[in-house]
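Take a specimen:
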Amino acid sequence: MATFRFRLDPVLVQRKRAVEREQGLVALAQRAHDAARAEFRRLDAEFAEHSRMLREEHARLKTDELVLLYGHISFLDRAMDAAKRDLDRRKSELDAAMYSLHEAMKRRKVVETLKEHALDAFRVGEMRREQNELDDGNARHDDRRTAFDAEIGGLR
């Protein structure tokens, strides 16, 4: 029996490598997105804590403490704006990386489907070849048997 060899195996290997590379890029983008989200949440929690502190302790704080607290809250607000922009940018990078991964997976799947069809065609051809060999063998056996039966019939 012959062995199956797919002509596009080098292409399939390259497509699999491309998918692995894209998976790595998605992982990096996901990690960066998660870090940006964690930073935004940290700043948001700090902003909420200082805002709560300002609301609850406003009356008992001294003027210079209030100025510092307002200044820090203002800083946190600006930092949150920057973190939100960074988070949005990281999200779009993650989406782009995931889209590239999806496209690479589709390209790989096309070649895998071609390989499956070629393998199915190869198996059908092999089964047909084996069946033809069996049929030829049976036909030869029948011819010999018919000839043998004719000889025996002629001897009687």
Summary: The chain is about 90% helix and 0% strand.
